[in-house]
Amino acid sequence: MRTTLLCILGLLCTCVRAQGGYETLTDLNYRPDSADAYIQERCVLDLYYPTDSDSFATVVFFHGGGLSGGGKFIPEAWREQGIAVATANYRLHPRVQNPTYIRDAAAAVAWIMEHIAEYGGDPSRIYVSGHSAGGYLTSMVGLDTTYLAEYGQHPDSLAALIPFSGHTITHFTVRQERGLNWDDVIVDEYAPISFLRPDAPPVLIITGDRERELYGRYEENAYFWRMLKLAGHPQTWLYEMQGFDHGGMARPASILALDYIRGDLN
Hints:
The protein is α/β, with parallel strands linked by helices. It has one domain: Alpha/Beta hydrolase fold, catalytic domain (Rossmann fold). The protein is 26% helix and 22% strand. Strand 7 (160-164), helix 5 and strand 8 form a beta-alpha-beta unit. Helix 2 packs across helix 3 (133-143). The two termini are 12 Å apart. The relative contact order is 0.15.
């Protein structure tokens, strides 16, 4: 475990929309075989990728919003950094119920695994990340092998999982759908911590400040990290963004994630 106070004021900059060596393809449907109107609306991703290089890394990124809100966006720290970003929407509660949104996330990851080489990306350098609910989806898709198996893919071929402050127990919206309260803690087949695999992809776990996070979010992630280690997982790390709350931690976390992707994180 590493507790980190990042001095990011000099690192965070105002980034303009990509120009020149980048292209953005918007609203690519990653479930194109369905005529369902809500799937057509929400099962889409934007692909932002460099056009002047190849064999680049790609991050599949899922937004937060409690599985009931939010929309796709590209973290500013990842623009014009030599990597591609596939930022994906997914269907939301209450219009759908669990595990529909997990299956959507898996479909988006599988689409990138199947197609990123067509845009010049390296299929062996696909990272999955997300903030809050997106972090939960990241861990579920990357640890429970059944979701990607539906598309003939396996999560162990991913370069790494990088969840930002995601639930590792069963998500509170999943519990809400069962009529439970936020503090009725459940750990079942919809909890990432139920799928401790020593052969899983590397896992870089990032949270906000434990005193400013949600619902003991740091502590459950710290337990997740410890249990992965005890299960024999050789490449798992935990970073705490001191001074940053649940929402604010995503900015420094994206910088840390970029350092990891570049191999600069020691």
